[in-house]
Amino acid sequence: MSLTKQTSIDRIEVLENGIIQVREISRIMENGKEFSSSYARWTLSPGQDLTGQPANVVAICNAAWTDEVIAAYQAQLTQQTQGA
Prior knowledge:
Number of strands: 3
Helix content: 25-40%
Strand order of the largest sheet: 1-2-3
Shape: elongated
């Protein structure tokens, strides 16, 4: 019996306001067949520091986060805090 663990990003979604949702799957493999799996999820906000993020996530963020998207997101945050 040989157990191995495989981890990969299996979903990257860009929301309307520029937030990026990332899902990572971890698979436990037994003799080449999936025995178990679990997910980890996180979000990234436009303009957020991407240090430590996987290269494919960084590439999507860089493509999605134009100056206009970042400015609109910041304006949305300002509006929310002023309206609270």
